[in-house]
Amino acid sequence: MEGDVVWSSPLPQVEDRPLGDWDDSVLILGIETSCDETSVAVVRGGREILSNVIASQTELHGEYGGIVPEIAARAHVEALSPAIREALVQADITFWDVDGIAATLGPGLIGSLLVGVAEAKSIAAVLEVPFIGVNHLEGHIYSNLLADPEATFPAVVLLISGGHTILVNARGHGDYQLLGGTIDDAAGEAFDKVARFLGLEYPGGPEIDRLALLGDPEAVRFPRAMIDVVGFDVSYSGLKTAVINHVRKLESRAEEVVVEDIAASFQAAVVDVQVKKTMDAVRHVGGDALFLCGGVAANSGLRQGLAEQCQRHGVRLSVPPLELCTDNAAMIAACGTAMARRGLYTSLDAAPDPNLPLIA
Ligand code: KG4
Ligand code: ZN
Questions:
Q1: Ligand 1 site-directed mutation target among 35, 112, 207, 296, most atoms within 8 Å of CB
Q2: Are 30 and 329 in contact (CB under 8 A)?
Q3: What homologous superfamily is domain 13-147+325-346 in, according to CATH?
């Protein structure tokens, strides 16, 4: 078929809802399908989680040692409708109580994003409520506001996950300045790649963390790339290669590879660099609040390192519980509520964007 699709009747656009309506009782249904978690949540007033259903695909991808996009998209198709039903039941509401639908528009895997966005738009159209397309990275920032009643902007945010490692100066809702980030691998990606090389289960981050607690962090002095470079960027690709080269060298000499020591030494290198850059960023903006979010926020070494430094420098550290650190729809619903309050509804014509930037 040539040319654009022409609809016989226009899709409803809900753009005239008075902003004052978005009070503390509004109910937003959030949908997150950007990667390998199908998640649906109901959040009241942008801060109160009524339900946060998370169907993880980790087992499906485990045997491949990483996420397979085609499998992820298919799994979202199967899991999404039951997750929506479950989220409504747990929140003890029906579709007709919902005031708006927020879904992750990007960044992420295009096939996965499409599943959530198509479903969210359909529900919004039928219910005649606004559709709000949320940036996944901005969503992560809101996990801190959900988990911690005292947490407020401005704050420096360290978003550290399998797909992203960025430091953001969050001055207010929707007002972000990118301070720095990885110039190559995301921190979680480095954890997963090192773990895979060491023959550990996927995802490797939690496994390395577990083994690191049993090993000596000073057994091997791995490089701390960029630590003395001015600015807030980090690089983890060289560290990953250094670990691989070190293990190969031991093996070639038939020396024992103590996995616990390798894990602890690798983790110590990541933590040293990331804690230094993060505290430098907080000092640079003159802030007194730090938000930690993303899957690697679960790392015990990183949490401990940041907690110590924040305490020493009088910085208030906010760390969400694990289920809000990793991908979830509650953070998407919370972010969507803040956007709706500013009138930022999304057209039903909007397409998901796998490369959607945090700052346009
Ligand atoms: O936020 P997330 O669920 O998905 C992305 O958006 O990437 O993060 C998953 C990442 C994986 O790379 C996983 O290995 C890492 O977070 N991770 C950890 C830990 N728990 C999860 N990395 C280090 N230590 C952990 N305890
Ligand atoms: Zn994420």
A1: 296
A2: yes
A3: ATPase, nucleotide binding domain (3.30.420.40)
